[in-house]
Each structure stands twice: as C-alpha cells, then as structure tokens.
C-alpha cells in the first residue's frame, strides 16, 4: 500500500454507532443513543464532515446548536464552515437578555431561549441538532432565531425519525445524515 492510500481513512457505517434504547426515558419511546458515535474519532469526524458539507458554500455566518447534544456537533460543524457558534438553551441558562419561544409538547409545553444579541441583525444562521423527531424543537428554534433577527439558511441533523414527519414543520433546506 502506498503512503497516500494509507493516510486515507476508510468510510465508516455511521448507523453502526447508534444504539437503540427501548423504553427510555419513558415506555414506548425508542431512544437513539448517539454517544458511541461521539466516542469514535473516525465516526465523529465523518459525521460532522457530512453534516457540514451541504452548507459549506451557503454563506453561513453562525451555526446555532440546540441544547445539549446539538452543542457537541455545532462547534465542529462551525469550524468546517468557518463560522461562529451560537446557543439555543433551556430557560434560565443564558446570563443576559434573551428572547424566548414556548411550544407545545404531547403533554404540556417547553420553552427555549437565545441571547437577543447572539448574532447581528440579518446574520445567516444554520441550525444544528442531533435528532429530528416531531420537529417541535426545530420549529421553535427557527422561530427564536427569526425573533432574534437572524435569517435561517437551513438545518443539519445527525438523525431523522422520518415516520414522525418532523420535516413537514420546517420549510428551509433540511439535511439529515441518518434516516430511520
Ligand atoms: P422533537 O422536538 O420531537 O423533534 O424532538 C427533538 C429533540 O428531542 C432533540 O433535541 C432530541 O435530542 C430529542 N429526541 C426526541 N426523540 C428522541 C429519540 N427517539 N432519541 C433521542 N433523542 C430524541
């Protein structure tokens, strides 16, 4: 094997790094545990490369990650795109002025917040999260970013549960690496 070929990392099957956990956090839910993927240097590198790729030339100013697993992916994706990073967080976590959006869950509601000055007016924003399920979190994050003055360029997700059709709640370009 030549030196060049030896330095090319083989592609990995990312599906092999996602572990199904039945009945977590409650009966009937199959939780997609992504921690084995995060723990593998080859899988993690390939995942963030492939999540960033469709948006490399989209003029993204800031990559916004959704708490908390979205943060782990957002930093590496921002590095690839050459942008900054922003945080969408649960209530009470951000220390300065925030805008908030409250959205409906199956039972009750949830709220997400972002700093009012997380990015300049008109900044082009890419949203990042680990799992797209019902799409409520993504739709709320989109609303939050628009409220804070951003222009949503799209979203990139590690994994999509397509049978829940969360995609129908988001009109901008949406890239998902692993589709179930
Ligand atoms: P949703 O608002 O229904 O699209 O849910 C998305 C959020 O909930 C993401 O931030 C995920 O981290 C988490 N989530 C929802 N369903 C699952 C699942 N089956 N496995 C792992 N995480 C999930």
Structure notes:
By secondary structure, the chain is α/β, with parallel strands linked by helices. It is built from five helices and nine strands. It has a five-stranded parallel sheet, sandwiched between helices. A two-stranded antiparallel sheet has the order 1-2. Helix 4 (69-81) links the parallel strand 3 and strand 4 (84-88). It is globular and about 40 Å long. The model has no long low-confidence stretch (mean pLDDT 95).
Summary keywords:
about 180 residues, alpha/beta, two-stranded antiparallel ribbon, 5 helices, 9 strands, about 25% helix, about 30% strand, binds adenosine monophosphate
Give me a quick take on this structure:
With 180 residues, the chain is an alpha/beta fold. 26% of the residues lie in helices and 32% in strands. Strands 4-3-7-8-9 form a 5-stranded parallel sheet, sandwiched between helices.
Radius of gyration: 17 Å
Following the backbone from N to C, one meets helices and strands in this order, namely HEEHHEHEEEEHEE
Largest sheet: 5 strands, parallel
Instruction: Give the beta-strand count.
Output: 9
Distance between the termini: 37 Å
What percent of residues adopt helix (DSSP H or I)?
A: 25-40%
Q: Could you give the order of strands across the largest sheet?
A: 4-3-7-8-9
What overall form do the CA principal axes indicate?
globular
Molecules bound to protein: adenosine monophosphate
- SS field, number of helical segments: 5
Report the β-strand fraction as a percent range. Answer: 25-35%
> What is the averaged pLDDT score?
95
Q: Please mark out the parts with pLDDT under 50 across 5 or more consecutive residues, or reply none.
A: none
Structural class: alpha/beta
């Amino acid at each position: 094997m030549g030196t060049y070929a030896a330095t090319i990392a083989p592609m990995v099957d990312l599906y092999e790094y996602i572990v199904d956990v039945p009945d977590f956090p409650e009966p009937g839910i199959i939780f997609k545990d992504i921690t084995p993927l995060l723990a593998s240097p080859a899988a993690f590198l390939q995942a963030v490369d492939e999540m960033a790729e469709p948006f490399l030339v989209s003029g993204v100013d800031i990559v916004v990650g959704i708490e908390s697993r979205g943060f782990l992916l957002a930093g590496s994706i921002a590095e690839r795109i050459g942008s900054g990073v922003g945080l969408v967080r649960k209530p009470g976590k951000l220390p300065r002025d925030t805008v908030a959006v409250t959205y409906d869950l199956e039972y009750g509601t949830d709220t997400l917040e972002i700093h009012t000055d997380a990015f300049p007016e008109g900044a082009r924003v890419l949203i990042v999260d680990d799992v797209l399920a019902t799409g409520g979190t993504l739709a709320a994050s989109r609303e939050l970013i628009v409220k804070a003055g951003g222009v949503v360029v799209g979203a990139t997700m590690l994994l999509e549960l397509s049978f829940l059709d969360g995609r129908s709640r988001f009109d901008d370009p949406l890239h998902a690496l692993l589709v179930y």
